[in-house]
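Provenance and format

Records in this collection were gathered into a single text stream. Each protein contributes a sequence line and a token line. The two records reproduced below are adjacent in the stream.
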Amino acid sequence: NIGAIYGLEAAGDTQALVLELIEGPTLADRIAEGAIPVDEALTIAKQIADALEAAHEQGIIHRDLKPGNLMLTCDDVVKLTDFGVAQIFAAGKLTATGGIVGTAEYMSPEQGMGDAIDGRSDLYSLGVVLYEMATGRVPFDAETPLAIVVKHIRDPLPLPSEVNPNIPDVLERMILRAMHKEPAERFGSA
């Protein structure tokens, strides 16, 4: 469930990746149509978790998991793309505390504080994506990215069932655990 990288081309100072062509919408496009039915959301979440598990087994943390980086093929296969932020870190160009990199709406509290992160940070982001699939909106929104990050750090999570009363209890518990403020209280692996 990871978009394939076929090669790296270089011409002078310019480098380009040769990527798998994925014909289909992003998950962001699909969510824009409204909340996704629970069975479909869980199927998508499982595929995202499979992709994260494969990346984490290789020591790669995505750091910018969001619906815009998830492609849906015409066969309903989810492909995780855009490992650009992960590669910046892996190449040693930034440290985990050298700056905040990612998208505020999907950022874990520890990532937002510039602390060291591990795969559980990606799991927090997966929780946000699952929240958004189930409710049609992100849990925290504000006028600026910094204000959103502060909400991830400090504010209690608005219950998904308060936004969409049709969310099953088991799904809400999964989201709450994935989005726990403390990494140690989240799932241990994808």
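Adjacent record:
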Amino acid sequence: MSKNKFGTFAGVFTPSILTILGVIMYMRLGWVVGNAGLIGAVIIILIAHIISVATGLSVSSVATDKKIGAGGIYYVLSRSMGIPIGGSIGIALFVGTAFSIALYLIGFAESFNAYLGFGTSINDLRITGTIALFALTSLALISTSAAIKTQFIILAAIIISLISIFLGTSEFTPSRIHLFSDENSVPLEVVFAVFFPAVTGFTAGIAMSGDLKDPKKSIPNGTLYAIGVGLFVYLLLAVFMASTIDSEVLKTDYNVLMKIAFFAPAVVAGIWGATLSSALGGILGGPRILQAMSIDKVTPKLFSKGKGANNEPVNALFLAFIIAEVGILIGELDVIARVVSMFYLTAYGFINISFFLESWANPDFQPKFKVKRWIGFI
């Protein structure tokens, strides 16, 4: 049985953009705009994207230096920077990815339960989230390529849902546009922490590094296009929400996009598709990082075992499942988002400083995709 290999669009761009335009965009961007005001929200979006663009450029440069194998960012970094640095970043990324599965599934549960009229108490969200986690883990165990094929349908659903939102009408039109946060708003650092997981999706494409036809070309192109499209959509949506929906409604109603949309079911399909596909991306990508670390003896050898022609990381998948379930039991999207932000910011900080030091001090570092080293330093 030969391995299926994916190109830039299917292997990197699509999984990345599906994760970027995911749970935070649908369920929390309005809350961010309501609390931070339009200018505050734009600043938060830009700062988060400066971090993701710098990290995306650093990773893309490192990715074109050596041969790339399975294990995503961990593999790329450990082959260029050495296994100790790669391993420390890999562990932070694996835990962050596993917790982000919980983030997406709790977002899914919030929308699913609200739309179908089920309870929205914390225990109801835990139950729905756990059932969804079981279903997705089973799908990942059955077939990776089936999981990757579903993503095109989901991408279409997200595009239709965005068109439906922009064509919608709002009975919540504000008397004036709030540009800055007011005294009853959540502090900006908390708003930033809740928003930041929105821009971490670009690592989903890199996580599939072992399944790409030409990773040295696909990773830089797919990653940077996904970040660029994500930035454009977030800025457009923030301006649209600030000008059409009152800030008090944005602060309190997480499902407001469904209410203003031209065709609400399209938004529901977009939310469910984006949250489930993002969770599936984490379920596919996270275990591959752990498996690659275990092959290098950074983590216990138990997690290096795989099954089938593609060496699917079964044992690593079970550990990711357990961490994700712990996140689901926390049950509050805003709390999980802050935990995820912490792990990802740690990992991204390490990635950028490693790239900066490597390009400054290592004469062997000869990437095909050249990036100025000060970008990593910033």
